């Protein structure tokens, strides 16, 4: 790759923009001088062209000089640009003297001194401006590059943080779920091989779903409910008639996208802390319905409620509920977090997914993992 190809496009654009600006200036000033002050003296036009070419070369050199100085300390940059301004002024003024005086026979030192003294008046500002404007453009570009880089780093850091958080949450949820289901199936193997085979088949579906959830792709609510039903069937082998399961699902919501395994920890907590310790068991009910501004989810049971050994009041140290709460907030915002309502006759855990996130946006969790 050549040096020219390695130069960022923005610097090339800035260079051609500055040169274009001065091309217009040189053209107008040369035409005015050619028509008004030195009528039909074609050397004026050629001198303007040569001065413009020299300026374009110096602008490129100033950019490279700025790039080198930028890596130094601020004090060195200020000193370097002061020296650079002086060198640029002397070089451009000498080139101007060469075309305006020297080629016309004014070649002596006194001629040069008179030209420089005249140039040190207001006319000198045009040379100062050319250097200062070029340097200013360079530093403006560097400033916006710095701001853009900081924003990108900030975005990447936030994205990586969410990726790590989601990966951690899923790594915690899956083992938590697998431990409970394997513990349930362990009691069946010795008592009934037929039931064990049936549970193994159901468990294979559960495993497949749990493993697929690591891809970060959202799933249809219908698939999530099938997964919950398989989980309940496995648990019903363990608890028998003591565990009942009911659903009240708005059919319009079955095709919506939800994070995988978002309902399982809620159902699992109802089984573990609400139904299992209760002598006569109970019923777990899952409600899903579309409401104004979102889709409402509710998992409730009629178990021990506030009388359970571990009260699920939203401050529980349980991994499942905390992870579900964090996942919902990380994907849909703080308003989508879990709300836990303990009662004397059971628990209700509910949350609402904003409708715009569900039906019109892309799968945010998938985007986080893919990036």
From TrEMBL:
GO terms for molecular function: phosphorelay sensor kinase activity. SMART domains: HATPase_c. Residues 256-357 form the Histidine kinase/HSP90-like ATPase domain. Pfam families: HATPase_c (PF02518), His_kinase (PF06580). Gene3D superfamilies: Histidine kinase-like ATPase, C-terminal domain (3.30.565.10). The keyword Transmembrane helix applies. GO terms for cellular component: membrane. It comes from the Bacteria. Keywords: Kinase, Membrane, Transferase, Transmembrane, Transmembrane helix. The chain crosses the membrane at residues 12-32, 44-66, 78-99, 127-144. The keyword Hydrolase does not apply. This is Histidine kinase. It comes from Fulvivirga lutea. The lineage of its organism: Bacteria, Pseudomonadati, Bacteroidota, Cytophagia, Cytophagales.
């Amino acid at each position: 790759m050549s040096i020219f190809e390695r130069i960022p496009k923005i610097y090339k654009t800035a260079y051609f923009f500055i040169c274009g600006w001065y091309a217009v200036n040189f053209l107008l000033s040369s035409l005015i001088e050619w028509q008004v002050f030195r009528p039909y003296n074609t050397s004026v036009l050629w001198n303007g062209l040569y001065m413009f070419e020299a300026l374009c070369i110096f602008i490129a050199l100033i950019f490279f000089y700025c790039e080198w100085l930028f890596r130094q300390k601020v004090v060195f940059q200020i000193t370097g640009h002061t020296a650079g301004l002086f060198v640029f002024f002397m070089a451009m003024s000498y080139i101007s003297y060469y075309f305006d005086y020297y080629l016309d026979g004014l070649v002596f030192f006194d001629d040069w001194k008179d030209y420089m003294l005249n140039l040190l008046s207001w006319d000198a500002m045009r040379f100062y401006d050319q250097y200062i404007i070029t340097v200013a453009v360079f530093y403006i570009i560097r400033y916006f590059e710095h701001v853009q880089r900081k924003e990108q780093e900030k975005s990447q850091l936030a994205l990586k943080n969410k990726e790590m958080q989601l990966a951690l949450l899923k790594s915690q949820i899956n083992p938590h779920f697998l431990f409970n289901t394997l513990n349930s199936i362990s009691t069946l193997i010795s008592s009934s091989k037929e039931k064990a085979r049936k549970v193994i088949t159901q468990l294979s579906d559960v495993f497949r779903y749990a493993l697929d959830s690591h891809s970060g792709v959202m799933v249809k609510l219908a698939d999530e409910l099938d997964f919950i039903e398989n989980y309940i069937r496995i648990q019903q082998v363990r608890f028998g008639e003591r565990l009942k399961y009911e659903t009240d699902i708005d059919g319009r919501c079955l095709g919506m996208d939800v994070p995988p395994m978002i309902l399982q920890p809620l159902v699992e907590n109802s089984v573990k802390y609400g139904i299992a310790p209760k002598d006569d068991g109970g019923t777990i009910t899952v409600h899903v319905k579309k409401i104004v501004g979102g889709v409402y989810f509710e998992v409730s049971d009629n178990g021990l409620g506030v009388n359970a050994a571990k009260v699920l009041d939203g401050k529980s140290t349980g991994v499942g509920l905390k992870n579900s709460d964090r996942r919902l907030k990380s994907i849909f915002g703080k308003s989508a977090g879990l709300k836990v309502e303990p009662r004397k006759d059971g628990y209700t855990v509910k949350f609402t997914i904003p409708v715009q996130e569900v039906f019109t946006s892309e799968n945010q969790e998938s985007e986080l993992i893919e990036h």
